[in-house]
Amino acid sequence: METTMGGQWYDGLIALPGCDKNMPGCIMAMGRLNRPGIMVYGGTIRAGKQPSSGESLDIVSAFQSYGQYVYEKITEEERKEIIQHSCPGQGACGGMYTANTMATAIEALGMSLPYSSSSPADSKEKKDECIAAGEAMRRLLE
Q1: For residue 54, what are the contacts with CB-CB under 8 A and spacing of at least 6?
Q2: Cβ(136)–Cβ(13) under 8 Å?
Q3: 61-67-71 Cα angle (round to 5)
Q4: Span 28-69, pLDDT tens digits
Q5: Is 91 in contact with 123 (CB distance < 8 Å)?
């Protein structure tokens, strides 16, 4: 990020990370650049739903289904159904795990816009946040 910013003479940075591994890299670069920077978290994934039972699913459901299958509490078909519907779309892990925790911490540090760490990746709020980040960057560059 720093090399691209310097080599291309960018005036500001809007970083769009989506996981706990790349968020620290984004904010470290933002801190070192001495240029305006805003991080827009890519967003969390929405919960899935198991068609046969209507039960809410998430990534942990997929992990737990393996143990249930090994101990013969569910069939292979039920396990496949859980896995296929646990992560139904785009976004980082859906629980308050490291990606969402990191996004919350970065928001608290003021390196992302207020109220931005909890919007799902595919929501209207996330799209609005991206537009707001552009407007904020324009104001920062004035």
Answers
A1: none
A2: no
A3: 135
A4: 999 999 899 999 999 999 999 999 899 999 989 999 999 999
A5: no
Token representation of residue 36: 């305006």
Q: Which region, left, alpha or beta, applies to residue 110 given φ > 0 means left and ψ of -120 to 50 means alpha?
A: left
What whole-number distance in Å separates Cα of residue 62 and Cα of residue 73? 14
Predicted TM-score (pTM) above 0.85: no
Residues in the chain: 142
DSSP 43-93: -BPPPEE-TTT--EE-HHHHHHHHHHHHTTSS-HHHHHHHHHHHS-SSSB-
Token pair 């209207």 is at which residue?
124
